[in-house]
Amino acid sequence: MSESAPREVSRRSFLQAAAVAGAAVSAGAQAPALVKGKTVPIELPALPYADNALAPHISSNTIGFHYGKHHKAYVDNTNKLIAGTDLAEAKLEDIVKAAWGKPEKKGLFNNSAQVWNHTFYWNSLSPKSTSPSAQLKARIEADFGSFQKLRDDFANAAVTQFGSGWAWLVVDGGKLKLMQTANAETPLATGQHALLTVDVWEHAYYLDYQNRRPDYVATVLDKILNWEFASENFAKAGV
Ligand code: ZN
Fold this sequence. Notes:
Layout: H1 11-27, H2 60-82, H3 92-99, H4 106-123, H5 134-144, H6 147-160, E1 165-172, E2 175-182, H7 187-190, E3 193-199, H8 206-209, H9 213-224, H10 227-237
Antiparallel strand pairs: 1-2, 1-3
Helix pairs in contact: 2-4, 3-4, 6-9
Bound molecules: zinc ion (ZN).
The site of zinc ion has 7 residues, from helix 2.
């Protein structure tokens, strides 16, 4: 993130920082080592593309705040909330499920679910044009009638989610469905298998689109939705 880089760094410290960043990325592919009794930090995953790769549809300025500030804050808050608890060594997915529906863990649910939702959102976007696999395309046509109908229903779900939340394409009970969730709520907690998501919190679009959520949603759906990611998730759903 250019925004988090120091304004003035020596070439040496820059190279050291780059080496550390590279090591962090490659280490991220492996499961973190468990240390008994210690918090295993939930990590902020690297963006799957450069912070300006989605421009002009989503600007690097939006990504700087959305990923660099909001997503990072959810990671930091989750780590604070699990420190010293029985979830200190748990995986993110297990933390989300353990906190779901428990009033005393509402803060932990909101923060940990938002970590998972945002990582899923970044992967739901792609700077290159993608299309669904033949299997997913056939299922879209069976369950929605046409790709265009799915696209229009998806847009409607994203635009009409009242307030902050998410629109999702999921597999539920063996069928493709659209769902809306409020705030941090997530299909990970409620048992649906997510294929794609669109973040409709204002922080996702306000810098680029101000109050024009329909324009942001149409742009995401028509220009940068990652159908390769959806196809991989569909294959994993095993339907
Ligand atoms: Zn967001």
